[in-house]
């Protein structure tokens, strides 16, 4: 019983650590999971290809919760391999959890889709009565199970349903992380430049009190995002949370004349700049020059609106 799936990394519009409301958008970087279920055991053993000594508790918990919910409590093995760097602010834990839950569904022979989720991308074709496709598991349910696993594994502060929804569904997802509720989802088509400094920052270690202090700015970012002004929202978010978490704001200042929006992603350290095709001033090639002089890596990518999938391709 082998199953495979992949889920997206994501960038931040609004960090939820101040108010519990967050927003993130799917990036064209993937984490893939392969799950092999064994009905003869309930033990799960995980491996992270890029980090053989990495903590596998999250992905092991994802398999256990998924077989408990949709299978017969089978154990087995799970392996992730990823283009999303760990602890870099690009939502590696959300991508790993989503890919693992979906790969477990795939191994159980379940169909996964968006039936019955009005906010999800293909819900219009979801009703069997009207000729749509019936599914066994919705992607949002799978996403919520991964968030539960992340809370139980202690790798998140709020549950990070914003990151998980963007990783699972693609597009910009605005969420209430207290209730694991998707408030809004919007497709976006941006070019993206990501600068990842050499250091790493685990979300679970972030200074939550400092983040709470910038709650009035988070409310402003929420208002901008709710109006669909995502690029301005992310720039305000980046300035506020860089200040709260002690990150340099110079990369953002360098980006502002050359990007439609720029933000510290998650709890850092990556900084993500986006270029909207309709913005005549955005020029990520020009931004790559000053950012390229900084230590660390530069990555060019785009947004994705399709999200996570089972099997080997979307
Ligand atoms: N590719 C992966 N495969 C398996 N587990 C992972 C993977 N990435 C992250 N994890 C799990 O999630 C934990 C937290 O990782 P990390 O801090 O990177 O997640 P994050 O909160 O999404 O942060 P960031 O947004 O900075 O990437 C890791 O210790 C590990 O247990
Ligand atoms: O652990 C968490 O709850 C979070 C971590 C960061 O990625 C944030 O960007 C996100 O909004 C919430």
Automatic annotation (TrEMBL):
Where ATP binds, per the record, is at: 85-95
Q: Which InterPro entries match?
A: GHMP_kinase_N_dom, Ribosomal_Su5_D2-typ_SF, Ribsml_uS5_D2-typ_fold_subgr, SK_arc
- One Gene Ontology term from the biological process aspect of the record: aromatic amino acid family biosynthetic process
Give the GO cellular component terms, alphabetically: cytoplasm
Region (Disordered) location? 286-314
Q: Looking at its record, which EC class is this enzyme?
A: transferase
Pathway(s) this gene product operates in, as recorded in its UniProt entry: Metabolic intermediate biosynthesis; chorismate biosynthesis; chorismate from D-erythrose 4-phosphate and phosphoenolpyruvate: step 5/7
Domain GHMP kinase N-terminal: residue ranges: 58-112
Where are the membrane-spanning stretches?
none
Q: Provide the GO MF annotations for this entry.
A: ATP binding; shikimate kinase activity
Gene3D superfamilies named in the record? 3.30.230.10
- Catalysed reaction, written as an equation: shikimate + ATP = 3-phosphoshikimate + ADP + H(+)
Q: Where in the cell is it found?
A: Cytoplasm
**Keywords tagged on the record:** Amino-acid biosynthesis, Aromatic amino acid biosynthesis, ATP-binding, Cytoplasm, Kinase, Nucleotide-binding, Transferase
The record's section on SUPFAM superfamilies has:
Ribosomal protein S5 domain 2-like
Q: Can the keyword Transmembrane helix be found in this entry's annotation? A: no
Protein EC: 2.7.1.71
> Where does the record locate the signal sequence feature?
none
Family label: Belongs to the GHMP kinase family. Archaeal shikimate kinase subfamily.
Q: What is this protein called?
A: Shikimate kinase
Supply the source organism for this entry: Halorubrum aquaticum
Encoding gene, per UniProt annotation: aroK
């Amino acid at each position: 019983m082998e199953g495979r799936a992949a889920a997206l990394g994501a960038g931040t519009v609004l960090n939820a650590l101040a108010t519990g409301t967050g927003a993130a958008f799917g990036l064209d970087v993937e984490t893939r999971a392969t799950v092999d279920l064994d009905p003869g055991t309930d033990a799960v053993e995980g491996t992270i290809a890029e980090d053989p000594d990495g903590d596998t508790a999250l992905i092991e918990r994802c398999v256990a919760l998924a077989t408990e919910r949709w299978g017969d409590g089978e154990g087995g093995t799970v392996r992730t391999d990823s283009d999303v760097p760990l602890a870099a602010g690009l939502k590696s834990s959300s991508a790993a959890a989503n890919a693992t839950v979906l790969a477990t569904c795939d191994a159980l022979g379940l169909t996964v889709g968006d039936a019955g989720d009005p906010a999800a991308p293909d819900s219009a074709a979801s009703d069997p009565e009207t000729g749509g496709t019936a599914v066994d598991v919705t992607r949002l349910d799978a996403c919520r199970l991964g968030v539960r696993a992340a809370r139980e594994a202690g790798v998140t502060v709020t549950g990070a349903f914003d990151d998980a929804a963007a990783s699972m569904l693609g597009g910009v997802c605005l969420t209430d992380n207290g209730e694991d509720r998707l408030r809004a989802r919007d497709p976006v088509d941006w070019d993206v430049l990501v600068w990842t400094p050499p250091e790493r920052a685990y979300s679970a270690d972030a200074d939550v009190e400092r983040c709470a202090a910038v709650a009035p700015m988070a409310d402003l970012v929420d208002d901008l995002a709710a109006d669909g002004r995502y690029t301005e929202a992310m720039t305000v978010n980046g300035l506020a949370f860089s200040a709260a978490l002690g990150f340099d704001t110079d990369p953002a200042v360098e980006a502002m004349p050359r990007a439609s929006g720029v933000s510290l992603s998650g709890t850092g350290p990556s900084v993500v700049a986006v270029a909207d095709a309709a913005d005549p001033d955005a020029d990520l090639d020009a931004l790559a020059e000053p950012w390229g002089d900084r230590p660390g890596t530069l990555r060019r990518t785009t947004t994705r609106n399709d999200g996570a999938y089972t099997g080997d391709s979307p």
